[in-house]
Amino acid sequence: MSYLVLGNLAVAVLLAISGAAKLRSPEETRDAFQALRLPGWLRRSPAPVLLPWGELALAVLLIVGAGWVLVIAAAAATLLMAAYAVVIARALTFDEPVRCHCFGAHGGDGVTRRTLLRNVLLLVTSVLGLVGAVAGVSIYSQPAAGWGWIAMAALAAVVAVLSLAGGGESPSGGVASVAPTLTIWEVSSGERVTLRKLAGRHGGIVLLSVVSGCSGCERVLAALPGWLAESPGRTVVPMRPAGHAVDDPKWESLALLHEDWGSNVTHTLVGSRTPSAIELDAAGVPVGEPAVGPAAVEELIRGRVEPEPAVEAPAAPVEEEPDDYVRRPIPDSVLIDADGEPLTLRQVASQQAQLLVTIDCLCSPARHAIASITDWQQRLPVLEVRLVPSIRPRDPAAVPAEVQSTALYDHGGFAARALGATGKVAAVLLGADGLIAGGPVTGLEAVEDFVADIEDQIRAAAAESDVPPSG
């Protein structure tokens, strides 16, 4: 019966993987307790925090334990697997699908019959391991070849495949070409619309996939109004499976709510896990990679949150408060030019005043700023207008060649923070005398106003120079 040691070893490996995954995503563990509708006292208890540590401890004992220690560990593992099987079987009776990331990104995220089969096989495996522990079988026993070892190895392999395969799917390649033609339905009007048409209406959108029975989705939906208030340039289109929990009150206050028949769009663009989101440009083409999970979705919608820079001067254009604006020395920060050569900010502005337009994403406001660089350069001929990204776009076509040729890369965004020009889009004017001449200003609208103010000043200065001296 020495082959029964494989039962405990298989359960131990899966417990170790499960515990490590839960430690990396503690919020998803608490979400699973809520999604599985476990009792309130259990959700509020330390159980969600202690569960991964308990799984890891059991994994260690099942591997290195012997005698009564191994028997107790195997019995505890069997009780745990039985509890998991009962919880999953109960979840299959719910009216709406349940999302449960039992193995983090390694495993499936939806509770299905396959999940129940996996847990039943885990229970069988743990029972066989318990039988072996009671019989005195451990890793210290002398192994013996035979059909028993083969059968136990096959069972362990099936359990591993069911536990770890098929989860965390990502969209297949080539979605950029098909995405604009995909269609979803607007809930308020019943209109069927392509992603190209929908994204074109708003100059680009963030498509947010959510479902009921998903605690992470509920947190995202609750926080969404606040995120949009902080990011007015964003248009977020929530999307749920068609006909899914239509009477759920959480949907009533959602603007631009759409339905995805058969979850076809979700599976094509972002995979099966929720909450998830992906940005589409004005043509309905995906921008960057999908964001999966509440934290990644928040980062995509809000943009990266940078620490507040230590700035002495007020963050306002010189034209608005000319008497109060204090010109500061240009900080000692380094940018990288198109040839890969480092340049200090002072070197950049040493020959000609520079309007630096900083971006930290390829969101809609940033893309609008990129497209405006050439126009701003024509309107401000006495300056050099340069794009200063802190990210390197994967798609070379995201930045036109004429803009890319003069762009200056800001590794880590250090120069932008030193200048105070942080956020999705910002701008600052550097003087050739080594001092900051205007700004910083943050936000696409503020940058456009800043350019217009500089343009007016240039025209006014030109008009004054044309006036003949008096006397």
The portion of residues forming beta strands comes to 5-15%
Structurally, the number of domains stands at: 3
Low-pLDDT residue intervals, each spanning 5 or more residues: 304-323
Dominant shape: elongated
Beta-strand segment tally: 13
Helical content class: 40-55%
The arrangement of helices and strands along the chain is HHHHHHHHEEHEHEEHEEHEEHEHEHHEEH
Q: Distance between the terminal alpha carbons, to the nearest Å?
A: 115 Å
Structural class per helix/strand content?
A: alpha+beta
What number is the mean pLDDT? 76
Q: Looking across the biggest beta sheet, what order are the strands in?
A: 2-1-5-4-3-6-7
Largest sheet: 7 strands, mixed
Cα-based radius of gyration, to the nearest Å: 29 Å
- Tally of contiguous helical segments: 17
